[in-house]
Design a protein that fits this description.
Blueprint (H helix, E strand, L loop, with lengths): L1 E3 L17 E8 L6 H5 L10 H9 L12 H16 L7 E9 L4 E9 L6 E7 L6 H8 L12 H17 L6 E2 L5 E5 L4 E9 L5 E9 L10 H5 L12 H13 L3 E9 L9 E10 L3 E12 L2 E13 L7 E10 L17 E11 L7 E13 L3 E17 L2 E16 L2
Parallel strand pairs: 1-3, 2-4, 5-8, 9-11
Antiparallel strand pairs: 3-4, 6-8, 7-8, 10-11, 12-13, 13-14, 14-15, 15-16, 16-17, 17-18
């Protein structure tokens, strides 16, 4: 139904503004189950912008927005877009009517979409085809946190997400050649029940295992200290394990976090289903960072409402004594009282200064690549107006990665402080 409050001619085309109706408002009624913001996102027809946006657009066409004029072709397509959007969310019998109110004296039009949503269909059955002779954990993972389940409202977008979710499960279970069979899959609407039956089909192919692992060092001629065991220790898979896309990604992340590589990437060679081999070869290419790095620094900060000025120098040795260890040392000095030069640390002065010498060792592999260790030794002299303190600090730390986004931290700190008061 298309109702016109004021029957006037509609100009759908033209390059001049004269004779076109500016869109004053676009409203929705009857959308009880789907939010207006979601529906407006499907509509191309837009309200004309306010004065300020028009002003900005007049200055520069990338600022603000131009006037929006009624186009009957676009408007008709908007009606179909809204209907398809509703049908994809289970509203098979939705009706989208419209009301147009033209005001010739102002040359504007008000647009209203009148929606009768009707019954929202649910999912009666979900059938997965082609997933046979797979490990039991595959079925358990499929049943855990599905994107759409039986008796849920039908949503084509969630069905598509479920297709991808199950395919990822199969990727990680050793089936890298799994394919979604679109022609054998369907979402069938039954007029008898007014609900849907969903069928999702796959060709899972063979189950593969990890094969030969090759390591390629892009800077082999200058960084011969980067041995293959450094790379292999960071992998979450080994020869003979069942192929897993997740273990490939996590292994790449481990290598890029270890601290001695600028970049690390893993390429795999999966044989086609027609090949009798089930071995997936992987090539790991790494680009090491510079072994030695010297970094001077200047320090400017605002601490305790006072300006701090300082300088420092740091040194890093990557792959120190092998094993991807990183050794670093840093000397840093800062002061708030430059005028106290050169007596920045005299006990009986008003100087406020700090000097810090720190040595740090990072060990990226302790028993497994999930446990990392660190040792930090610091010598600190801290001068404040009331006192001067000398600190010797020794700290050991261990980090364990329990899960992808869960880490545990254990630290032990031993500290000795010697305090001298300003008389």
């Amino acid at each position: 139904m298309l109702s016109l409050a004021v029957p006037v001619p509609v100009f759908a085309q033209g390059t001049e503004e004269e004779g076109l109706y500016e869109i004053r408002s676009v409203a929705l009624e009857g959308n009880d189950h789907i939010g207006s913001s979601d529906l407006h996102a499907q509509i191309v027809t837009r309200e004309t912008p306010g004065f300020f946006n028009k002003f900005l657009y007049g200055l520069y066409d990338r600022l603000g927005r131009k006037n929006e004029y009624f186009d009957f072709t676009v408007f008709s397509e908007d009606v179909q877009r809204l209907r398809r959007y509703y049908i994809d969310r289970g509203f098979h019998d939705v009706q989208v009517d419209t009301s147009l109110t033209f005001l010739p004296d102002k040359n504007v039009v008000d647009i209203l979409f009148l929606i009768n949503e009707g019954y929202q269909s649910t999912v009666d059955t979900i059938i997965f085809k082609g997933i046979i002779d797979v490990p039991e954990f595959v079925h358990e993972d499929m049943q855990s946190s599905p994107r759409i389940s039986i008796h849920d409202p039908f949503n084509r977008g969630l069905v598509d997400e479920e297709v991808l979710r199950v395919r990822r499960i199969l990727f990680d279970a050793g089936y890298p050649n799994v394919h979604f069979l679109r022609d054998s899959s369907s979402a069938t609407y039954f007029t008898s029940t007014r609900n849907y039956s969903v069928t999702i089909s796959y060709d899972i192919g063979k189950r593969y295992i990890w094969g030969d692992i090759a390591v390629k060092n892009e800077l082999d001629s200058v960084r011969d200290d980067i041995t293959p065991d450094i790379v292999l220790n960071q992998l979450d898979y080994k020869y003979g394990d069942f192929y897993s896309h997740a273990s490939r990604l996590s292994s790449e992340q481990n290598l890029n976090r270890v601290g001695v590589f600028d970049q690390a990437r893993i390429a795999v060679d999966v044989p086609p289903n027609s090949d009798p081999s089930i071995l997936v070869a992987s090539t790991i290419t790494v680009r090491p960072k510079d072994k030695h790095e010297l970094a001077p620094e200047l320090v400017f900060s605002d601490e305790n409402n006072a300006f701090n000025l300082g300088a420092g120098i740091g040194y890093s040795n990557r792959n120190f004594l092998g094993g991807a260890r990183t050794f670093s040392t840093r000397l840093r000095f800062r002061t708030q009282t430059i005028n106290e030069f050169p007596n920045y640390f005299g006990v009986a002065t008003d100087a406020v200064s700090n000097i810090d010498l720190t040595f740090e060792m990072l060990q990226p592999y302790i028993f497994t690549n999930k446990i990392k260790g660190s040792w930090t030794f610091s010598l600190i002299r801290d001068k404040q107006k009331p006192y001067r303190q000398d600190i010797i600090r020794n700290k050991f730390g261990f980090t364990d990665r329990f899960a992808d986004y869960t880490n545990g931290l254990l630290e032990w700190t031993l500290e000795r402080v010697s305090l001298d008061r300003n008389p």
